[in-house]
Design a protein that fits this description.
Blueprint: E1 11-15, H1 19-26, E2 60-64, H2 71-77, E3 86-90, E4 97-98, E5 108-110, E6 113-114, H3 138-142, E7 143-147, H4 150-158, E8 168-170, H5 181-184, H6 186-197, E9 201-205, H7 214-222, E10 226-231, H8 237-243, H9 250-262, E11 267-270, H10 283-293, E12 297-299, H11 309-320, H12 325-335, H13 354-370
Parallel strand pairs: 3-7, 5-8, 8-9, 9-10, 10-11, 11-12
Antiparallel strand pairs: 1-2, 4-5, 6-7
């Protein structure tokens, strides 16, 4: 595993507030107060967040202090190397995750990677890095965990007696076509197994890298086994660079959408998350561009701020759009019952109140005008065939007697 260059500065390490205090604050689904905020980091080119935010399970907080030797001034003047992306290999115990949420339309999901180099500041999966004792901030986009045994686990799980195919989505948490996929090819290997078994699936991605796998996806689409959703949050390249610094540019995603549609793949567009006063005014324009490129369906979800995403997003907002920050958060709170986040099933994906309903009306009317469906595409489940079980390894022949050497 690669190691980043580290500079040691004087720190005070204190015990953090008790677990009970954090749990009380987290009970409403909001993020805990940030622990150990270091001096405000400048934005890093190509990264969504430069903040190494302590995760919610951290039991210590760190604070810079002046030791009388000018250490803080020296630290401010020192040049630091930009963080490189590290790939951490993992042997996963399982690759199929079951969905227990009643407001999500799929039953199972596959995520070949944990963490995502796209660096989307709003990503709801950022808090999952907390379970790895890593920061949901900078670590989430620079320390990527790759499930190297994804194919073996998938074959094993699909071959279990009694397995029944259900709706399956690839890339529900982190993008399955993020930059590391070009080198590791885990997503392609997973799709190869699904193609062999004729198992239906969908993909959600904001990467044009999915075009690489058209040779697998197009034939499955002809059998009613595949649908793809391109996530296009904005048509403004400047806003996209700030929101999603290492994802494909908006025009490139539209081109990928067109390529998929021309190959006969059912394609939809996700205008998510919808952020008031940032990309929300573009909703109809994004839908129009996607429909013109060949999209057949669309959906949109208002911004969610679970756990550590809340302080990370608000920090980003103050850095890049300070003049809009108060208005954005005020509107979000109107849609979340006066809170920064609402984790309740049913309302978390839609919001509530006047502004949430207005956005839903705009989506419905634009989809009706453009001929975009808001219903999930029904896929063929009856073509599934389990993968061939791997043959047991042949037992090695007993060692020959030494006399046979002569």
């Amino acid at each position: 595993m690669l190691k980043l260059p580290v500079r040691i500065h004087p720190l005070i390490v204190r015990a953090s507030p008790s677990a009970e205090a954090h749990e009380a604050h987290e009970a409403d689904g909001c993020a805990p107060e940030p622990l150990g905020r270091l001096p405000h980091p400048e934005a890093l080119k190509g990264r969504g967040s430069a903040w190494q935010l302590a995760h919610r399970f951290e039991r210590r907080e760190r604070e810079h202090f002046d030791d009388g030797w000018g250490s803080l001034d020296q630290a401010a003047q020192q040049e630091t190397l930009p963080p490189e992306t590290q790939i951490i290999e993992e042997e996963a115990r399982s690759i199929l995750s079951s969905n227990q949420s009643p407001d999500i339309s799929f039953d199972r999901s596959i995520n070949p990677y944990r963490g995502c180099e796209h660096g989307c500041i709003y990503c709801f999966a950022r808090p999952t890095h907390s379970y790895l004792n890593l920061s949901p901030g900078l670590d989430f986009e620079t320390r990527i965990i790759a499930k190297m045994n994804a194919v073996d686990r998938l074959r094993s799980e699909l071959a279990r007696p009694g397995y029944q195919p259900r709706s399956l989505v690839i890339g529900t948490a982190t993008d399955a076509y993020q930059p590391v996929e070009r080198r590791l090819g885990l997503t392609r290997a997973v799709i190869e197994v699904l193609a062999e078994c004729r198992h239906p699936f969908s993909v959600v991605t904001k990467s044009a890298g999915i075009e690489r796998d058209l040779d697998l996806i197009a034939p499955m689409a002809a059998q009613g086994l595949v649908s793809v959703y391109l996530s296009i949050t904005t048509l403004d390249p400047q806003l996209a660079r700030l929101l999603e610094p290492r994802a494909a540019a908006p025009h490139r995603r539209l081109r990928a959408l067109r390529s998929l549609a021309e190959a006969g793949v059912p394609v939809g567009v996700s205008v998510s998350p919808l952020i008031p006063f940032l990309n929300e005014p573009e909703l109809e324009r994004v839908l129009e561009a996607a429909a013109e490129a060949g999209a057949r369906s669309a959906f949109s979800i208002p911004l969610r701020l679970p756990w550590e995403v809340n302080p990370l997003f608000q920090d980003w907002l103050q850095q890049h759009y300070p003049e809009r920050a108060a208005r954005v958060m005020a509107r979000l709170r109107e849609m979340r019952g006066g809170r920064d986040n609402d984790a309740r099933f049913g309302s978390r994906m839609r919001g509530e109140g006047l502004w949430a309903e207005l956005m839903q009306q705009r989506l419905r009317k634009a989809c009706a005008r453009l001929g975009l469906s808001q219903q999930r595409r029904v896929q063929q489940l009856g073509l599934f065939r389990p993968p061939a079980r791997p043959l047991a390894a042949a037992k090695p022949a007993p060692p020959a007697a030494q006399g046979e050497l002569f």
